[in-house]
Design a protein that fits this description.
alpha+beta; nine-stranded mixed beta sheet; globular
Length: 419
């Protein structure tokens, strides 16, 4: 059977099949090799199949009948439960190193720096299904018309993603443990990536205000990273001092066709909790947005679209030594953190079924493995989409979701060609 273009690209650039074949087997007497199981889950995630049950159907009767062959949902779940998630994280790091060697991570706007964003999101919340890794909380909800307090089970994951590139590239994720904070989970993931990728792989870390804490900042600097974090009310003394030092006329008013920006720069702002100075940049953005207003003046209510101005003020704290670099660079770095939520989490949730609990109840490690393989499949499919598909189909470009359908169609065509 002739090879699929997607798999041929992965083997040519990343030696992907060889690396997957080298992954250790976690079962003693496997009926199906781990590579077959991995390929079924990985290709199923790339084709955006929602569940292990759908992957089983496609392998037995559908588009993966020739490429994978018959394999049951129970086999997939059993194999995932007995594999080590660190092996998939290591595989993702090997892919990331190859991307950096190939120049994919280099961009001009970041001034030669590789910028990564850290953030967390919630997946697989349920009032009935749980596993040994589930976190718990009490939630008030209506049960048969009565308001009752129930235990809700859920997972939170933290991901680190390169956001300085034209498209975001996830490096890895980690599941937050019960009793562990999101910041602690993020620090554990950063240390794992630092050990596997090396000290000079990343240059700048960006994140929201939750990460602007003394212990986390000290740990990030110990890893040799510069940082830019949003400054909000969780650091009231630093915020008050920053507001005091950024009054009066703005230092810059950069031109932008989409918005008006006023920028204040305070190179030395004392942070009492950390007993140190940090750099703070304040911005006031004025944007014209479309807003829908309900008109009640007439006899019948109707929606009226109008264009209004919206203003937003943001503070960003950083340890960067700018030198000749203008302070607007700090603002650009701070804004880049939105890519991990607006692009990565949203796309994987809507298209790649990140929050689909295909394996959960009683299969804690299987859920971790499935989520990590889904993230790896998203990363490599996105690389293939931007580096191969969009570069060759500029006039007739289709979206990321369309690529998944095309991948599945090509597997189906190969099945007909070999029948």
């Amino acid at each position: 059977m002739r090879r699929h273009q997607f798999e041929a690209y992965l083997d040519k650039v990343f030696d992907f099949s060889e690396r997957v074949s080298a992954l250790p087997e976690g079962r003693q007497y496997p009926q199906h090799a781990w590579k077959k199981v991995f390929d079924a889950v990985f290709i199923g995630a790339a084709c955006q199949f929602a569940s292990l049950h759908e992957i089983e159907t496609e392998c037995c009767l559908g588009v993966l009948r020739r490429r994978i062959g018959p394999i049951s949902e129970d086999t997939l779940r059993y194999a995932l439960q007995r594999q080590d998630p660190d092996d998939v994280l290591q595989l993702g790091c090997e892919v990331a190193r190859r991307l950096k060697r190939n120049g994919v991570l280099h961009t001009d706007w970041a001034r030669g720096r590789v910028v990564a964003a850290v953030d967390g999101t919630e997946i697989c919340s349920s009032f009935t299904r749980c596993c040994d890794r589930c976190m718990e909380r009490r939630v008030a909800r209506k049960v048969q018309g009565e308001l009752r307090e129930s235990i809700q089970y859920y997972h939170r994951i933290v991901a680190v993603t390169v956001v300085s590139t034209p498209f975001s590239i996830p490096l890895g994720l980690r599941f937050q443990k019960q009793g562990e904070t999101e910041v602690g989970c993020a620090l554990g993931l950063l240390r794992d990536l630092h050990e596997r990728l090396g000290r000079r792989f990343l240059d700048v870390l960006v994140g929201d205000a939750l990460y602007l804490q003394k212990p986390f900042v000290q740990a990030v600097e110990a890893l040799g990273l510069e940082w830019v974090f949003t400054l909000k009310e969780n650091q009231p003394e630093l915020l008050a001092e920053a507001r005091h030092l950024t009054t009066g006329e703005p230092d810059m008013e950069p031109s932008d066709s989409k918005q008006q920006i006023q920028l204040w720069h305070a190179p030395q702002v004392y942070w009492p909790i950390a007993d140190r100075d940090v750099r703070v940049v304040k911005t006031l953005r004025t944007q014209k947005i479309n807003q829908v207003r309900i008109d009640n003046d007439s006899v019948k209510k109707h929606a009226v679209k109008e264009r209004v101005e919206k203003q937003s003020t943001n503070f960003f704290a950083s340890n960067m030594q700018l030198g000749a670099i203008p302070p607007i660079f700090v603002y650009q770095l701070g804004q880049s953190r939105w890519a991990i939520d607006a692009e990565v989490f949203q796309t994987i949730t809507t298209d790649s079924h990140l929050k689909q609990p295909s394996v959960h109840h009683g299969h804690d490690r299987a859920l971790v493995m499935l989520t990590m393989i889904r993230l790896l499949a998203y990363t490599l499919t996105m690389v293939f989409y931007h580096r191969q598909v969009r570069s060759h189909h500029r006039r007739y470009a289709f979206g990321f979701c369309g690529l998944a359908k095309l991948l599945a169609y090509h597997f189906l065509v190969q099945t007909f060609d070999t029948s």
